[in-house]
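So, does this match?
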Amino acid sequence: MAVMGSQNPLLGETTCGSLLQQLQQIWDEVGESDDERDKMLLQLEQECLDVYKRKVDLASTSRAQLLQALADSKAELASLLAALGEKTFTGIPDESTGTIKEQLAAIAPALEQLWEQKGERMKEFADVQSQIQKIHGEIAGNLEHNERVGTPAVDENDLSLKKLDEFHSQLQELQKEKSDRLHKVLDFVSTVHDLCAVLGMDFFSTITEVHPTLNDSIGVQSKSISNNTLSMLAKTVLALKEDKSQRLQKLQELATQLSDLWDLMDTPMEERSLFDHVTCNISASVDEVTIPGALALDLIEQAEVEVERLDQLKASRMKEIAHKKQLELEAIYAHAHIEIDSEAAHEKIMALIDSGSVEPSELLSDMDKQIMKAKEEALSRKDILEKVEKWMSACEEESWLEDYNQDDNRYNSSRGAHINLKRAEKARVLVNKIPALVDTLVAKIRAWEEERGFSFAYDGVPLLEMLDEYAMLRQDREEAKRRMRDQKRFHEQLNTEQETLFGSRPSPNRPLGPKKVVGPRANGSATNGTPNRRLSLNTHQSSGNGVRSTNKDGKSDKNRPVAPVNYVAIAKEDAASHVSGSEPFPPSP
């Protein structure tokens, strides 16, 4: 107490010692007893202890609070590190160094930095989660155009970069899905636009019925990509494609009807060209029709009106058209040398049209089939007919050559004699080819008949029989020529003997000329003016050259089908009568 109560002379402060001295002086003046003084000193001492005790308690409480604050700071630091996913943090002081306040002062900057980092991390989380939530809403169709999403709830206990990366990955997947959906939407919109253009429909009203954001005036990123929008777009495209397919089918049917009616009535090209926009797609597929307005309803209605108009004209022109087709059919058969009953066929067609028992289009279709069949038949006969023409031409040259050879003045130097001489040379070459030509023709005819099972008729007469008769007549002519040569040699010998006996030769007489054999003409007339003779369909026996209508066994083919029982007159010269061996013949000039 004496030490504590000493007065500091330098500071001039009142201390416990100076006060105690003043108290002793007062006691001395008052005359307090020692017991009283001791009692009062003990009281002062107790009061001082109470004051120190309170201060110590306050100091202990303050220390405990500082320790708690330090513990809380460390726990908060650990919590922030755990939330941010950081295992350590640079700048955190060592726990074993420094006073409590120094440790608190040292940890405060780290806490402040971590709190700032946490705030930034929460902002990043809120931003990415907000984008995720917005895309989810766009996909689900819960967000209207330009509608904002609410602030997302961020989990403050897990703000790690790993978690943030997971959200970013999820956001990237959603953005990719959004991009894919947006491309699908744009493709659908483009398809709807093209289909509406082809169908002649209003694109704006069609697409806005699906969703208002699909209008061209709204930005691409603002268009609806919801499942419902995609589904409705798909249904719209499907419905438009179905409508396009039905319209194209309808238009093609109308175009086919128009084409048939035009062909039926020989409509001029100028009138047909007015509907080129209809007929240009007659064989096009659905995907090939892309011209705007190509399948518009008004175009289809226009085609329907035209078809109806032509249908009304069709009935009045059916007879004329059927007559033309019948003439065409008859011309084909005539050119192919096939005999038909034209008058009966024409009467039957007219009767069918008048009765109305058959549909005109079916009748014309049947006539077209007959024409096609006739063309095929004519084509199959073409090669044989060409050789028949060559044969007939050669026969004409052969006939001319026979006449030329009988002309006594053929070597005179008359005008045109050299031309006939050249023709005779060519005719001899051609005539020498006749046997080979006939053999080739017979082989082709037999092959043709074996393939089809009926005989090859030329203007109603079996061609093989014509060739057989030609072969027999040719053989008869050769036989007549041989006899004439024998008679000529006999007369020459007789004249020589008479000249030897009497010294003079008798005046020559013109011998009978050899028989001429000519082939049939295309019109069935003869070249020498002899009367026509009908060819019988009976089978003749073959002559020495073997040109006969026989089967593979060499026998007459009695069962082979022949042409219908019609006969046609063909020209040939009657066979020359056989000359008796005793009948005198004058020598040839």
